[in-house]
Amino acid sequence: QVQLLESGGGSVQPGGSLRLSCAASGNSYLSFCMAWFRQAPGEEREGVAAINPSGTRYTEDSVSGRFTISRDSPKNMYLQMNSLKPEDTATYYCATRSASKGTYCTTSDTYDYWGQGTQVTVSS
Questions:
Q1: Sequence-ordered alpha helix ranges (H) in 3-122
Q2: Residue 78 contacts residue 20 (beta carbons within 8 Å)
Q3: Cα dist. 61→22, 29, 46 in Å?
Q4: Is 29 helix (H, G, I), strand (E, B) or coil?
Q5: Which residues on neighbouring strands pair with residue 71, listed in sequence order?
Q6: Rounded to whole angstroms, how far apart are CA atoms 83 and 4?
Q7: What is the pLDDT tens value at each position of the chain, 124 positions in all?
């Protein structure tokens, strides 16, 4: 089992920055891939970025160049969000999966464990 706790959300003006954190506890094997997803009100959940323990990243085009995913341990992941736009407003979720489904991590993979989410609001 894996427990995930996101933090770092908040309200920011357009053009501002936030840094989200995700802390995983439990079996590290089950947190091989770590990823960020987001869901805006009335919208479907969408992938943002994913990363494996080696630091190989996958980033969706919609946030590429503005958001950077990183990982400093098997259990801690971050999302640095710069140049935020109102359309980035959403609840952001951390998710993990094991290496059994492959070692290259993308947001198209099926993730097994999810956090409760942290709200990001971008508004003037």
A1: none
A2: yes
A3: 22, 28, 12
A4: helix
A5: 77
A6: 26
A7: 899 999 999 999 999 999 999 999 988 888 899 999 999 999 999 999 999 999 999 999 999 999 999 999 889 999 999 999 999 999 999 999 998 888 899 999 999 999 999 999 999 9
